[in-house]
Amino acid sequence: MRIRQQRQRSVRWVASMLILLLMPLGLLAQEVRVQGLVKDASGDAIIGASVVQKGKKGATGAITDLDGRFVMNVPAKATLVVSYLGYETREVAVNGQTQLTITMTEDNKVLNEVVVVGYGTMDKKELTSAVSHVGEKDFLTVSSLDPSMMIQGKVAGVSITNTGAGDPNNQASIQIRGVSSRSAGLGPLIVIDGVPGGNLTNLNPNDIASFDILKDGAASAIYGTRGSNGVIVVTTKKGSKDGNMHTSYSTMMSWDVIKKELKMMDAQDYRAVRLGWGDTGVDLGGNVDWLDAVSRTGATVQHTLTLSGGNDKSNYRISADYRNAHGIDLRSKREEYGARASIMHTTKNGLFTLTANVAPRIIDRDNADWSVFKDAIEANPTTPLMDPENPVRYYNFMGQVVGSNPVERQRLETDHADTRLLDLDGTVRLNLLPLLANDETMRHRLTTQIMFADHQYSNDNTWFRPSTSTIAINNGRDGEASRSYGKESQRVVEWLTNYSGSIGLHNLKGMVGYSYQYSRYSGLSAENKDFPNDGLGADNLGSGEYAKEEGEVMMGSYKNDAKLIAFFGRVSYDFDGRYLFTASLRHEGSSKFGADNKWGNFPAVSAGWRISSEKFMKDIRWISDLKLRADYGVTGNQDFGSYLSLNTMTGFGYYYYNGKYFQVWGPSKNVNPDLKWEKGKNWNVGLDFSLFNGRLYGSLNYFNRRQQDLLGNYKVSVPPYLFDETFVNVGTMKNTGFEFDLNLKVVNTKDFSYDLNIVGTTMKNEFVDFSNSQYVGQDYYDVCGTEDPYPFYNLQRIEKGKSLGNFYMWRYAGHTIDGEWLVYDRDGDIIRASQASDEDRQVVGNGMPKFTMSSSHNFRWRDFDLSLFFRGAFGYDIFNIHDFYYGTRNFTGNRLQKAYAKNYSIAGSANPVVCDYFLERGDYLKLDMMTLGYTFSPRNWRFMDRLRVYGTMKNILTLTKFSGVDPSTYQVNGLTPGGQGSRTYFPSTRQFIVGLQVDF
User: Fold this and answer.
1) Buried residues in 348-358 as b, exposed as e (16+ CB within 10 A)
2) Does residue 789 have a cis peptide bond before it, meaning omega lies within 30 degrees of 0?
3) Hey, is 377 helix, strand or coil?
4) Could you give the CA distance from residue 384 to residue 391 in angstroms, rounded to a whole number?
5) What are the angstrom distances between the C-alpha of 535 and each of 118, 466, 538?
6) Short-list 965, 997, 952, CA closest to 256
7) Which of 154, 577, 641, 726 meets the CB 3.0–4.6 Å disulfide criterion with 670?
8) Phi/psi at 759 (nearest 5 deg)?
């Protein structure tokens, strides 16, 4: 009995202990109903915030309602993850609570933004040099083949100009911190996903994640002989890492409509005024608006489909795009197909990481003939389109200023090109620490990687003019044709080793590397005339009779190459993020350089001081971040021909001997063994700031760039030289300026937000010298020459000690009673222009803007968004070239209406004079772009995550006193800013865009 009782007591004790032991598990498994409120720092409810249970796969979670509230059942010890766009993600422990109030903090991405620099990345807060970052959310909405137009005006100190936006095959010119060379290239180095020498043409704008512009010497010196004009680093989008597959589709349609800015005479004006008032001219019986006749509304359609998926260890992204566009002229067209695929895989324990990118593109294009627009405004408006005596043939323009029918040229002539692009690269990175050491704290990283890249580009160009063309008839030809083929290949191999580590408050990063780049260019061309029929086009040049009858070769070919080899390194150190220091060095050699200058060194150093981290700043709470930085760097420019330093041979005609013709060969130029890179010495002082908890932030920069050893042809004595000119390094140019970039979050509530951005640049230029100790050049040379029918004038002079862009011409003093031009001589006396000499010319203005700016205004109201983009240029002059050619009664072609209004007092017999009468202020401010969009973010749609529709209008309104065409279409980049001597004219357009983006 006692034994049974003891057993019963033992069972009860064990049961009691089991209950006590299992009670915590029961409590842990117990679910609670949590009711929560999510709000911002000001107390406003946050609508649409995501609330999910941490660590639970497949959890549906909750979305906050219109009052910012949510309800969900979770374990009592669960942790909730709360996230919302624009706010820092929060993790909140439930701890059995049933009521939660969660306050979200705005995400200050400015300091934590990752910026891509040469051969690496760093947080923006670590930067000690001038690098501008433009992310996807700040891109402009554009319909252009050139992705650089997405950041036009967005970056201080960067000038992007497209003088022919209505041509689907035209690309913009890019200039960073002013012109830096006289005879070498002026464009920046393009780096795509770490591969230098990239081609923006082979990029779909929808694939781009960000642009990083390395503007100063310290940032771009790591690229050595290619860094003087700055560096644009493009980062493409990569695979998603959330474990899900994402599909997105976007489409865009756009229309370009010509803006008629030149008020030319129509047929009625021509007859009633020009002929009616007794001026010279002839009525040909027609009534044609030639600008309308040669143009149309440009149109573009673009589609992009993207697949993306993966996780932190392995991910991929594949996109395919199609684009079809035709320009505002009757002939230009562009159809292209492209794709881009990227993959990343990290092996077990992170030992190896493999990445690869491949991007093929096929482009078929018909090239525009820009001269048709010049011909259209010059053509007699009474000229018929078709020949009245032979209605199936175009009217023959023989004898007119316009030598051929501009509509006929577009309809009958073909100018076609097939372009094939292939970019591929792959990288293998090895994490060395697991092999060499076991750093469990992960405060040290050591990796080494090797990258190989290959670019293969080809262009096949054909041109044909049929025998039925009036031009062929006038020239006595039975058709004309030409064909050319060019191929470019570039291979890059780069090896990098990176280290980063922290010891206490000391942080150190180091990088060493090797780079090899080999480029090869080859091509051939041929032409012929007089074909048996027009059906062959340019596809059977050998059937033409002209080459055989005239005994001409009419063909050629070429091949050249270039090689770059470099060793480089960089060290970065900071103490507690407060004192920062970076130094780099690149030792680089190029096959383009002379035998005595094959290698060069390009050092850089920069330092930063985070003032806001000092103890004396602790009580100044309105300053969130304040950093002072300064840097110095040496860069180079080797963008010139491959064999200019070598003794090359060329043909000098043929010599007849013993019944045969032999090619005569001889040296083609003077040999220069001292030829080397242009050297840029750059320094920059900057201030980065963030105020009022990141509500106001930006940067200020002052820069000074001195470009030495400028390349150019200089006169030398014969003998000892074989030729009287030699390509040498002589001359110095200097650019200085101030840049600012200001960003303000004006309003940010649950329903409404307004962000403002303003960037601006002031710029000064000086051509310091044309000479050095060995070569003495002239102190000036005149540029930007005019053409027929008023040739032999120059609009600008580049002069020692003065700025580029100086308009050097006579100063207008009025007109005589009989309409002759009067100008001032060098002594200030008024004389007839016919008596003026070159010594009477003087500087009367400058075509380089003293100040450029842009401003972005972004509004959001619930699911609607509106963005306005303004840009402008100020403090510069433009020579009104169309007024010069067409604004007086002397021009024999069609004329501007002002020739019979403002300029009527100028005699019809008086040639226009290059003087400041035609010089006008080019200042302008324009509303360049407006975009209105609406985003659907449905919660319960089964097949769609997000849908956005938008409409954009570009080139909306321009405020200017300039009386000619849109002043923004004048080229302000290069050696002749604001100046144009030719009659070239390409109309500006107003663009309309509609688009759709769908995420699945």
Assistant:
1) eeeeebebbbb
2) yes
3) helix
4) 10
5) 53, 9, 9
6) 952
7) 726
8) -125, 145
Residue entry with tokens 């960037």: 759
Please return the burial class of 522, using the count of CB atoms within 10 Å of its CB with bins 0-12, 13-18 and 19+. Answer: middle
pTM: 0.87
867: number of Cβ within 10 Å:
20
* Mean of all residue pLDDT scores within the chain: 90
> Which has the closest alpha carbon to 586: 565, 563, 603, 571?
603
CA atoms within 13 A on the CB side of 126: 20
Nearest 10 degrees: Cα torsion 49, 52, 58, 60: -50
Burial class (CB in 10 A: 0-12, 13-18, 19+), 441: exposed
Q: Give the pairing type, strands 79-83 and 90-93.
A: antiparallel
Mean pLDDT score, 231-241: 92
Average of pLDDT values for 270-297?
94
| Amino acid, single-letter form, for residue 112 | N
**Pairwise CA distance, residues 418 & 460, whole Å:** 5
Q: 835-852 burial, b for 16+ CB within 10 Å, e for fewer? A: ebeeebbbebbbbbbebb
Furthest CA-CA distance within the chain: 146
What percentage of the chain reaches a pLDDT higher than 90? 69
The letter for the amino acid at 94 is V
pLDDT of residue 451: 96
The arithmetic mean of pLDDT across residues 928-939, rounded, is: 89
Residue 24 has a pLDDT of 41
Give Cα 712 to chain centroid, integer Å: 27
Q: How far apart are CA 430 and CA 445, in angstroms?
A: 11
Q: What angle do CA 379, 384, 389 make, to 5 degrees?
A: 140
- Residue showing tokens 């498994």: 29
In degrees and rounded to multiples of 5, residue 799 shows phi and psi of: -135, 145
- Number of neighbouring beta carbons within 10 Å of residue 202: 21
Residue type, 135: G
The amino acid at residue 798 is I
Token pair of 287, please? 């009534």
Q: State the residue for tokens 């009386």.
A: 963
3-state secondary structure 15-53: HHHHHHHHHHHHHHHCEEEEEEEEECCCCCECCCCEEEE
Beta-carbon-side half-sphere exposure of residue 1000 (alpha carbons within 13 Å): 10
Residue 798 to residue 811: CA distance in whole angstroms: 18
pLDDT reading at 68 higher than 50 = yes
Structure tokens at 124: 């923006």
Give dist(CA 741, CA 688) in Å, integer. 9
